[in-house]
C-alpha cells in the first residue's frame, strides 16, 4: 500500500489539533484539494472522528425575518433590488409569527434557529427589534443565530445581551474574486463586522459559496481566509453550493463538478477541525449520494426545513429518511 507521505504534500506533519495561530498557507490548502479523492476523504474523515461524533448531525432551521429589497448587489442573491427575481420586499416579521416558527422548528427536531434579514446593515431600531426576536427564540429552548448584514459599534453587544449564540456573516469567496460578485461593499467591511462579533463574545458563523465560477485556487483562498481568521477560525462554517436563481447574474453559471464541492467540505473539515461544518444551500439540487459523501467528508450540520430564505430545501420527511438511511442521528439539545 502506498504511504500517504508519498504524495508531494508536506501536510502530514500538521496535526488535526493545529491551533489557529498556526496559519494555513494557501498553497498547502490547494495541495489538499489536489489529493486523490480517496486520500482526501480519508484524511478529512479521520480528523472528523478525532473531534466529533461521526454519526451526529446538527439540524439548524432558517427563517427569513425580513425578505427582499436589499440595496446590495451580491450577484448570487435573489433578494437584491438590483435584479428582477420576483422576490417581493417585506417588513420585519412580528414576534408572534417568529415564536410560532421557532416552536415548529423545535418540534421537528431542530436545535438551532437562524434568522436572516436582507439588510445591508441594520439600523439601531432594527437591532433592538431583532434582539426581541432573539429573546423569543431563546425562550423556546433553541440556539439563536442571526444574519443581518454589517454591524455598527455596539450592535453585537446588544444582540449578545439578548442571548444571541451565533452571528452569521459570510466571507463568501476568495478576496481576489469578491469584486467580481459584489460591488457595493468590500472584503474589509466583512472582516470588520466579524471582528465586532468576536469582540462582543458572540460565536462566529462564517463560510462561503462554491460554484460561482471561481477557480480551485480561489476556493482554496476562501478556505484560507476562514481557517486563518484571528484569533481563531469560526465556530461554525456554512459551505453553500450556489443556488442559481433566475434573474440574478449567476443564473446561468455552468454546473460545478459535485466532487469539487465534496472536496471543499473535506478541506474545510481538515483545516477547521473543531468547527461545525454545515452543508448549507444547494442540497435540494444535490442528490442523496453527494450529500452522503459530504457527511463522510466531515459535514456535521444541515439547514433543516422546507425553505432556506427564499429558495427551497429538502422537506423534513426527506431529510429524516436520508439520516435514517445513513444511520445518522440528529444532535440533541
Ligand atoms: N444580508 C445579510 C448578508 O449578506 O450578510 C444576511 C443574509 S444573506 C442572504 C446570507 C448568505 O446567504 C450570503 O452571505 C450567502 O452566502 C448566502 N446566499 C445568498 N444567496 C445565495 C444563493 N443563491 N446560493 C447560495 N448561497 C446564497
Ligand atoms: C448561509 O450561509 N446560508 C444561508 C444562511 N447562511 C443565512 C442562506 C442561504 C440562502 C440561499 C438563497 C435563498 O434561499 O434566498
Ligand atoms: Fe443583501 Fe445579503 Fe442578499 Fe447581499 S446576500 S443582496 S447583502 S440579502
Task: Name the features.
binds S-adenosylmethionine; disordered N terminus; 10-stranded parallel β-sheet; alpha/beta; 333 residues; globular; 11 helices; single chain
Strand content: 5-15%
**Total of helices:** 11
> Distance between the terminal alpha carbons, to the nearest Å?
43 Å
Largest sheet: 10 strands, parallel
Rg from alpha-carbon coordinates: 19 Å
Helix content bin: 25-40%
Shape, principal axes of CA atoms: globular
- Along the chain, the helix and strand elements come as HHEHEHEHEHHEEHEHEHEHE
Overall mean pLDDT stands at 94
How many beta-strand elements?
Answer: 10
Tell me which ligands are bound: S-adenosylmethionine, 6-(5-methyl-2-OXO-imidazolidin-4-yl)-hexanoic acid, iron/sulfur cluster
Structural class: alpha/beta
Description:
- Strands 1, 2, 3, 4, 5, 6, 7, 8, 9 and 10 form a 10-stranded parallel β-sheet that branches.
- Helix 1 crosses helix 8 (216-227) and helix 2 packs across helix 9 (258-271).
- This protein starts with 25 loop residues before the first helix and ends with a strand.
- The model is unreliable at 1-20 (pLDDT under 50).
- The chain is built from 11 helices and 10 strands.
- The chain has 333 residues and is of the alpha/beta class.
- It binds S-adenosylmethionine, 6-(5-methyl-2-OXO-imidazolidin-4-yl)-hexanoic acid (DTB) and iron/sulfur cluster (SF4).
